[in-house]
Design a protein that fits this description.
The protein is mainly alpha-helical. Among the domains are: 69-102 and 144-272, Orthogonal Bundle (Helix Hairpins), CATH 1.10.287; 275-317 and 328-392, Nop domain (Serum Albumin, Chain A, Domain 1, Orthogonal Bundle); 427-438 and 448-467, no CATH class. It has helices spanning 4-32, 37-54, 61-71, 84-109, 112-128, 133-179, 186-189, 193-203, 220-231, 240-274, 276-282, 284-294, 297-302, 305-308, 337-340, 347-366, 374-391, 416-424, 429-435, 455-473, 475-484, 492-496, 510-513; strands at 497-500, 504-507. The protein has a two-stranded antiparallel sheet with strand order 1-2. The radius of gyration is 56 Å and the shape is flat. The N and C termini lie far apart (144 Å). The model is unreliable at 128-132, 316-326 and 453-457 (pLDDT under 50). Residues 28-52 have a biased composition (Basic and acidic residues). Keywords: mRNA processing, mRNA splicing, Nucleus, Ribonucleoprotein, RNA-binding, Spliceosome. It holds the Pfam family Nop.
């Protein structure tokens, strides 16, 4: 039986014979093809077929994928920019905004007389047409249909703003991942996505940032921090391919931001239809920003007034500078006209009051009440009057006139007089002793008749009490006299010095001459103690 190795060798030999036969056939065909041009073309086709069939190269999938990425000029992240519905909506919005701007320019250029003439013509047309009832009904129907269409478009625009914000955030992440190799410190200096993207689109691959103008994007403190960080950065320049992708992402984000600005302009012009009371309170621009940041008018009506204060708040960049004047957590409402007109001391109070009024106005608009905005105007007037009253200084203290004194005499019960009156009615020591019951022997007779022998205790105590009261007065004087009087023991100086005829003055110890008895020896356990009784 043939083994596995034998079969494998036999297969290899068969392959070699097949290759030799193919090569012989190919050489014969090549010789015959030299006769004419037609034969040459056929031989070339056969040779190509032979090479494709037998000598086809294996392509690496990873290399092919990388080559395709290199061949592409620009990568694209945003799907919204290439959506047909989005592009149609944006075209209609642009046309509407352009028409509004042209109409405003035309109104500004017109004189007062031209405006009056237009009004007169409209009045004449409305009064002169007698059979215009049917036309008026048709106009009302058209207006209602246009209002519904505008409301639908407004809702779509609010949804588009939310989608644009999410796409800008995604692009910011991609740009940050790519550009961190070039400038890793930029992420810690510039926080907001649009500012970061616009800075990257200006810096590109340059190392010296002194010649680049960032004044239209960032404040001076942030620009200074960026220039200092760029001089000390550890980043490496990007390759051409990665830089091209990064800049294409930046262009997409800036284009989305421009579309967002156009949508907000359209919403500003149509805000009175959606939220008339809130528009009368805040203005069309702020109302559009507030509703677009929350998501819808329903979400705004549900949101509490405390949460409305921080809607649209952005994180400030801390660059080692003072934060005393910076207000963290303050959002869209802080930029309103009412809050800006108030001094700094009352701005916090004004924002909280405005947030409460905005929540009320949004709920009224959600339930379609007061379509002409009367309630919002009333809220605005009340808020302004309240803030004016808060800023008023407190009333001056008036000088109080003293009342006329009464002529009749008053009872003066304070001080010495009252103390003396109290002493007159005070209980005496005798009465105190009578009220005390004796302790010990039982008395058979009545205690209060003074016939009992125990009453003698009372009489004996009376003299003691009188003596003690007198003795207390002279206590201090007696102590002074006792300290002045000499004691029985002589002073230390007189007892320590002796005048002798031989040596003059001598020192001696008086305790040696007059020894004191030892108090320990007189005790019971002394060794010298004797029996007291025998």
């Amino acid at each position: 039986m043939a083994t596995l190795a034998d079969t494998f060798l036999q297969d290899l030999e068969d392959l070699e014979f097949e290759e030799e036969g193919n090569f012989i056939n190919f050489s014969a065909e090549k010789k015959e093809g030299e006769q004419g041009e037609a034969d040459k073309s056929s031989n070339a086709e056969k040779e190509a077929k032979f090479q494709d069939s037998d000598y086809e190269e294996i392509v690496d999938a990873i290399e092919e994928f990388l080559n395709e990425r290199i061949k592409k000029k620009e990568r694209k992240i945003s799907e919204l920019l290439y959506d047909e519905d989005f592009l149609k909506i944006m075209n209609s919005i642009r046309n509407y905004v352009m028409e509004e701007e042209e109409a405003e320019d035309g109104q500004n250029s017109e004189t007062g007389e031209a405006r009056r003439a237009k009004k007169r013509r409209k009045k004449e047309q409305s009064s002169g047409e007698g059979d215009g009832n049917d036309d008026d009904d048709e106009d009302e129907e058209d207006d209602a249909a246009s209002k519904e269409a505008d409301e639908v478009l407004i809702e779509k625009c609010i949804e588009l703003i939310i989608q644009i914000d999410t796409e800008i955030l995604n692009i910011h992440k991609y740009v940050k991942d790519i550009y961190s190799t070039k400038f890793p410190e930029l992420d810690s200096i510039v926080y907001t996505p649009l500012e970061y993207i616009s800075v990257v689109s200006k810096i590109k691959n340059e190392s010296d940032l002194k010649n680049i103008d960032f004044s239209d994007i960032l404040p001076n403190t942030t620009v200074m921090a960026i220039t200092v960080a760029s001089s000390m950065t550890t980043g490496i320049n990007l390759s051409d391919h990665s830089l091209k992708n990064c800049l294409s992402f930046c262009n997409e984000a800036l284009e989305l931001n421009e579309n967002r600005r156009m949508i907000l302009l359209y919403l500003e012009s149509k805000m009175f239809l959606l939220a008339p009371n809130l528009t009368m309170l805040l203005g069309s621009a702020l109302t559009a920003r507030l509703i677009s940041s929350v998501g819808s008018l329903k979400n705004l009506s549900i949101t509490s007034s405390q949460n409305l204060i921080v809607v649209g708040s952005s994180k400030k960049s801390v660059l080692g500078l003072s934060n005393v004047r910076k207000t963290f957590g303050i959002g869209i409402l802080s930029t309103s006209e009412i809050v800006q007109s108030v001094p700094d001391a009352y701005k916090k109070k004004a924002i909280s009051l405005l947030a409460g009024k905005c929540s009320l106005a949004s709920r009224v608009d959600y339930f379609k009440k007061y379509p002409e905005g009367q309630y919002g105007l009333l809220l605005r007037e009340n808020l302004i009057s309240h803030l004016i009253k808060l800023q008023e200084p407190p009333p001056m203290k008036q000088k109080k006139i003293l009342p006329m004194p009464d002529e009749k005499r008053k009872r003066k019960r304070g001080g010495k007089r009252y103390r003396k009156l109290k002493e007159k009615t005070e209980i005496t020591e005798l009465r105190k002793q009578i009220n005390r019951l004796p302790f010990g022997p039982n008395s058979n007779e009545d205690f209060y008749t003074f016939t009992d022998q125990n009453a003698a205790l009372l009489n004996s105590n009376l003299t003691k009490l009188k003596y003690q009261s007198k003795q207390k007065v002279n206590n201090v004087a007696k102590r002074k006299n006792l300290s002045v009087q000499s004691s029985g023991v002589t002073g230390g100086l007189s007892s320590s010095l002796i005048f002798t005829p031989l040596q003059g003055i001598e020192l001696f110890n008086p305790s040696v001459i007059n020894p004191r008895p030892d108090p320990v020896e007189n005790k019971y356990f002394s060794s010298k103690a004797q029996f007291r009784k025998v």
